Every structure is written in structure tokens, then in C-alpha cells.
Amino acid sequence: MRQRWSRMVEVLADASLYEYTGGEAPSLEQLQRRYVAQVVGHSENHLQGWLNWIVRPINGGALMGFVQATLERKASELLANIAWVISPIHQGHGVASEATKAMALWLQFKGVNCLQAYVHPEHQASMGVARKQSLHPTNLTDGIEILWESWQASNDRSAFRFRSWLNGPVPFGVVSVDARPTKGARTWYSLGWQV
Predict the structure, then answer these.
(1) Minimum mean pLDDT among 31-40, 69-78, 151-160: which range?
(2) pLDDT of 53-78, one tens digit each?
(3) Rounded to the nearest 5 degrees, what angle is found at the Cα of 63, between the Cα atoms of 145 and 170?
(4) Environment class of residue 57 by beta-carbon count within 10 Å: exposed (0-12), middle (13-18) or buried (19+)?
(5) Which residues contact 108 (CB under 8 A, 6 or more apart)?
(6) Which of 40, 96, 139, 153 could be cross-linked to 86 through a Cys-Cys bond (beta carbons 3.0 to 4.6 Å apart)?
(7) What is the value of pTM for the model shown?
(8) What are the angstrom distances between the C-alpha of 107 and each of 71, 149, 153?
(9) What letter does residue 121 receive in the DSSP assignment?
(10) By the 8 A CB rule, do 90 and 54 touch?
(11) How far apart, in whole angstroms, are the C-alpha atoms of residue 40 and residue 184?
(12) Tens digits of per-residue pLDDT, 13-25?
């Protein structure tokens, strides 16, 4: 496990990843603490669920980054705040869009009604990824980043034509997305190796 974490430290080391989001590259110890907390699958008060996927080439090559979702229930709706981080050496080839689409379809299959993402108004590449997920900018911000979102009716299952990937290989040519369900789930939807 420590070897996987050290490989992710390398992926997240480039300072340009933090140009719009702030912060800095995590150390191995910081990343280890983050993953140990996230693997629980939920916040202490159980009001949020956490899902994280490692992105790597379908042929098993070097790690490329990650996608993640924070789940919350609002009344009868299930919302996912999604994010993506891809190493600069893999950017510009559609990896973020493809990995995020795989995650979004998986989340929708699991009953998520709304996808949300906060995107910096000057981050053209992330706006492109958001658009490819059918997210649209709203008038809401967190003070800096703009909230993008996409709603899907609870009974609209048209986006689920890919549900067979839960039982087979991921139908994508560039990346595989590694999934680890929340604690207590009976099945691992393994689309690669788990964190």
C-alpha cells in the first residue's frame, strides 16, 4: 500500500496542479493520512459519503491522477460533488474527461441525481471537463470558484447503458478507473486495483 501512496505523491508533486486550487503537493505522510481517513467512506457524522478512484492507463502503466466524489442527501435527492486531478504530463489527451465520465456514469447508476463541481473561472481545461459531463455553470460561488451542476430525474435511466461495466472490463481505451465502495458494501466494483 505504501508503494501505491508513494506513486501518488509523484503524480501530485507538480506545483502547476495547485495554480487554481491553492495548496501544495502532499508529502507521503500527508497523503497517507488523507487516504486512511477517506477509506472509511464517510464523514464522522455520516452526512457525507466519500468515494475516490485512482486513474491509470488501461494497460496498467503509471498512475495518472484521481477522480473523487463527495456524496450528500438533500431531501430525496442524492448529490455528488465531483473533482478530478490529472498529472500535467497526462493532460491535454482527454484523460480527465474520460475518467470523470466513467465516475459520473457509475454514480448515476448508483442513484445520484445531481452532479456538482466547483471550477475556477479562469481554468479553461477544467471548464471543458465539466462541459463534457453535461455540467453547466450556475450563479453560485464559494467566493472564488463557480458551482457547475447537472440534474437528472430520479427515474431517468437512459444514461445507464454502460451498467455492464460493473460486471466486466471498463469500456474505455485510455484509462481504467479504480473504485472502492463505502465501508460495509458487499461487492467491490473493481475496475482496476483499489487504493
Answers:
(1) 151-160
(2) 889 887 778 899 999 999 999 888 99
(3) 90
(4) middle
(5) 115, 152, 159, 160
(6) 96
(7) 0.79
(8) 9, 14, 14
(9) T
(10) no
(11) 10
(12) 999 999 999 999 9
